[in-house]
Amino acid sequence: MKSYKFIISGKVQGVFYRKSVTDNANRAKFSGYIKNLPNGTVEAAVTCKENRLNEFITILKSGSQHSKISHIKQSSIGALYSGEFQIKY
């Protein structure tokens, strides 16, 4: 299992983006978090098997009905997450 961090840019705040990603990530049994950043982007982190990474990225790209993703920056991190995927405030 590896962990990854993502910075998502676009129309991602105030459009139920975090809620939609959280619901879909929990349905798919991912562990991690998502939170708004002060600069208008959203940060997400996940721990998963490498072969499921594209499935999680698809969830990030899908977002909510009103979101519009312009860019996703991905990096590997050392933290490991377990349990439910959750919104951090």
Looking at this protein, list some descriptive labels.
5 strands; 24% helix; 5-stranded mixed beta sheet; alpha+beta; 89 residues
Account of the 3D structure:
With 89 residues, this protein is α+β, with helices and mostly antiparallel strands. The protein is globular. The chain has helices at 17-27, 53-62; strands at 2-11, 31-36, 42-48, 68-77, 85-87. Helices cover 24% and strands 40% of the residues. The protein has a 5-stranded mixed β-sheet with strand order 4-1-3-2-5, with helices on one face. It is built from 2 helices and 5 strands, in the order βαββαββ.
Mean pLDDT across all amino acids: 98
Largest sheet: 5 strands, mixed
Which sequence of SSEs, written as H and E, runs from N to C?
EHEEHEE
Spatial order of the strands forming the largest sheet: 4-1-3-2-5
| Rg result | 12 Å
Helix fraction, binned, reads 10-25%
Sequence stretches where pLDDT stays below 50 over 5 or more residues: none
Helix/strand layout:
Layout: E1 2-11, H1 17-27, E2 31-36, E3 42-48, H2 53-62, E4 68-77, E5 85-87
Parallel strand pairs: 2-5
Antiparallel strand pairs: 1-3, 1-4, 2-3
Summarize this entry quickly.
By secondary structure, this protein is an alpha+beta fold. The chain has helices spanning 17-27, 53-62; strands spanning 2-11, 31-36, 42-48, 68-77, 85-87.
